[in-house]
Amino acid sequence: MNWLKKISRARYLGQCDNLRKCGNEEIWQNMMRQAAPITLQEFVSAVDTSAILDPDESIEEFGADDPETGYYISKWGDKDCYFLYTAGFEFIWVTE
Predict the structure, then answer these.
(1) Is residue 81 situated within a structural domain?
(2) How many structural domains compose the chain?
(3) Where on the phi/psi map is residue 14: left (φ > 0), alpha (ψ -120 to 50), or beta?
(4) In a domain, 1, yes or no
(5) Which of 17, 74, 85, 91 is the most exposed place for a label (fewest CB within 10 A)?
(6) Whole-angstrom distance, CA of residue 81 vs CA of residue 16
(7) Are 13 and 84 in contact (CB under 8 A)?
(8) Residue 35 to residue 50: CA distance in whole angstroms
(9) H helix intervals, the chain
């Protein structure tokens, strides 16, 4: 059953600054307005973090230096999304 859980995870879309440069400013603004905090455990069970982590790095280490680091659920356009906020950036995943 582990393979089923992995398939259903949200896919990494990108980092906020890159996405906003591509004409997604309004979508990003709406995502930020609708954001609701979730736990690290909820975040990890919903997304594949390997796209942003070094091979020997854990999600707990990513952003550990920033006390504002947080995990959120929201909307990216008409899709559900998850994002990690740290160091002034959002790392965004969308559901299929």
Answers:
(1) yes
(2) 1
(3) left
(4) no
(5) 17
(6) 13
(7) no
(8) 23
(9) 2-7, 16-21, 25-34, 40-46
Provide the residue range defining the domain that includes 25.
7-94
More confident: 66 or 4: 66
Residue 17 makes CB contacts below 8 A (sequence gap 6+) with 89
Pull the structure tokens for residue 78.
């008409």
Of all residues in the chain, what percent carry a pLDDT higher than 90? 89
End-to-end CA distance of the chain: 19
Query: pTM, whole model, 2 decimals?
Result: 0.87
**Torsion of the alpha carbons at 41, 44, 46 and 49, rounded to the nearest 10:** 170
DSSP state of 47: B
Enumerate the β-bridge partners of residue 80: 75
Q: Quick one: pLDDT at residue 14?
A: 95
46 domain-assigned: yes
